[in-house]
Amino acid sequence: MYRAARSLESSDSKPAKLAAELILDGGVQKMPGHGGRVWRTVSSKGSTGYLTTTGQCNCRQGLNRMPFLCHHRVAVIVMVEA
Ligand SMILES: [Zn+2]
Fold first, then answer.
1. SS (H, E, C) 9-69
2. Percent of residues, the chain, with pLDDT higher than 70
3. For range 44-54, the mean pLDDT
4. What pLDDT, in 10s, does the model give residues 61-78?
5. What's the mean per-residue pLDDT of the chain?
6. In this model, does residue 9 exceed pLDDT 70?
7. CA-derived radius of gyration, the chain
8. Cβ atoms of residues 78 and 7 within 8 Å
9. Phi, psi of 43 (to 5 degrees)
10. Which end of the chain has fewer surrounding CB within 10 Å, N or C?
């Protein structure tokens, strides 16, 4: 998982970089229940949390432009696949 995050970090893509930061800062935590599919991701300011799955996120970008791939979802996808 950390190797995946490190390779994202060196990517040119902004969502990929933000996703890597989120993972390496421990900002992606699995929620108890929900069949293990729902994760809590922390906002870039650290003040709010979002509920994120590989397919959906309730952050502003995720709600406005679904299926917009926000960095929260990128981070969750990495966590699930790692
Ligand atoms: Zn999001």
1. HCCCCHHHHHHHHHHHCCCEEECCCHHHCCEEEECCCCCCEEEECCCCECCHHHHHCCCCC
2. 94
3. 86
4. 888 865 678 999 999 999
5. 88
6. yes
7. 12
8. no
9. -70, 165
10. C
Element (H, E) at 73: helix 71-81
List, for residues 19-42, the tens digit of each pLDDT value: 999 999 999 999 999 888 999 999
Euclidean distance between the first and the last CA atom of the chain, given in angstroms as a whole number: 5
Its domain, for residue 47, covers 2-81
Give 29 Cα–ligand 1 centroid separation in angstroms: 14
Domain count, the chain: 1
How far, in Å, is the centroid of ligand 1 from the Cα of 50? 7
